[in-house]
Automatic annotation (TrEMBL):
This is Fatty acid repression mutant protein (Predicted oxidoreductase) (FMR2). It comes from the Bacteria. Gene3D superfamilies: NADH Oxidase (3.40.109.10). InterPro entries: Frm2/Hbn1 (IPR033877), Nitroreductase (IPR029479), Nitroreductase-like (IPR000415). Signal peptide: none annotated. Residues 8-177 form the Nitroreductase domain.
Length: 199
């Protein structure tokens, strides 16, 4: 499979199941391999992850539902949200939580004051590259996933439940599992809008 073919295979999957052939340990190894080679500014390696499976995975989405229920505008709105959480996320095999270790960012800001205003942005780029690297790895191995952002709503609960260091800032949640339904249609903007060639 070429890289472009792999990119086309990588899609947001919202019908997840828990029928994976890989063990939690194999998935953890897969994630580590992808993260190890993901580039970051000045090789800062500021990305941290928790790979949740089993009860930890289910607990994450139960906590998320509790928080969403507390802020829901109506019972009807919450019912739709709960159906999505249960069917697209909690029903999967696990979740990868992505964090930025802010102590790394702070250390770089102090060590290189001329670039201090850039290091947070660069750490966000590292999160994006890392999530994409894991997403491609999952796609290559037939694992469905999507990238979610229930932070900062769930930050305090996640930190308390999973003993997250104070310097780790939650940036994304990636539920994963067996693919139980196809990805939706994807629209593309014109290449002429996306890029220009200058000679």
């Amino acid at each position: 499979m070429t890289f472009n073919e792999l990119q086309k295979k990588r899609r947001s999957i919202y019908q997840l199941g828990d029928k994976l052939t890989q063990t939690p340990e194999e998935i953890h190894h897969m994630v580590n391999e992808a993260l190890r080679e993901a580039p970051s500014a000045m090789n800062s390696q500021s990305v941290r992850v928790l790979v949740l499976t089993g009860d930890s995975h289910k607990k994450l989405w139960d906590m998320t539902l509790d928080r969403l229920k507390a802020v829901a505008k109506s019972e009807e709105a919450f019912a739709k949200t709960a159906a999505k959480i249960n069917g697209a996320f909690k029903s999967g095999f696990g979740t990868v939580l992505y964090f930025t270790d802010t102590s790394v960012v702070t250390d770089l800001e102090e060590a290189f004051p001329a670039y201090a205003d850039n290091f947070y942005d660069w750490s966000e780029q590292a999160i994006g590259i890392s999530t994409y690297a894991v997403w491609l790895t999952f796609a290559e191995n037939g694992i469905g996933t999507s990238n979610q952002h229930y932070n900062p709503l769930i930050d305090a609960d996640v930190a308390r439940e999973f003993d997250v260091p104070d310097t780790w800032k939650l940036r994304a949640e990636m539920p994963f599992g067996s693919i139980e339904g196809p990805a939706g249609e994807k629209d593309y903007i014109e290449d002429s809008v996306r890029s220009r060639l200058l000679k």
